[in-house]
User: What shape does this take?
Amino acid sequence: MVPLEQKFPLDSRLPVIWQAEPLTMEWCVTCHRHPEKFIRPREYVFNMQWQPPGDQETLGRRLMKQYQIRDVRSLTTCSMCHF
Ligand code: HEC
Ligand code: HEC
Assistant: This one.
């Protein structure tokens, strides 16, 4: 048997987790201001291959109604994220 370390030298292993987006307030608020530009159907939230359709905003507005996403005013209220 080949020892595990030889098959997978430590420095060639892929990282198990990584940060896809910076957790800055700007990133959060960019979406909270215009969720219709970003939201996708629920069944695709874990699908990394999902691509937004050409008419993302039409889809987004429909999904916002369907999922009863609250209004942008409350999504951008400071107290929603800061206590
Ligand atoms: C890609 C879009 C997107 C990004 C990025 C995003 N959010 Fe949101 N977030 C939403 C939407 C849409 C809702 C509203 C869901 C609803 O009303 O049902 C929400 C809701 C919330 C809520 C309320 C949850 C609740 O149950 O009351 C908090 C708090 C929140 N977001 C914090 C954050 C923070 C902090 C970040 C950044 C680290 C962030 N969000 C990034 C889309 C996003
Ligand atoms: C959608 C969530 C969300 C909303 C709404 C939000 N913030 Fe933030 N805010 C964050 C996050 C997340 C951080 C942490 C950023 C970091 O660590 O880099 C942050 C950080 C900050 C900071 C620290 C300095 C900085 O820029 O990192 C200040 C000040 C701040 N927010 C003020 C506000 C005020 C004022 C409002 C209302 C106008 C607001 N925030 C609304 C998520 C939010």
In short: The radius of gyration is 19 Å. The helical segments are 4-7, 25-33, 56-66, 72-75, 78-81.
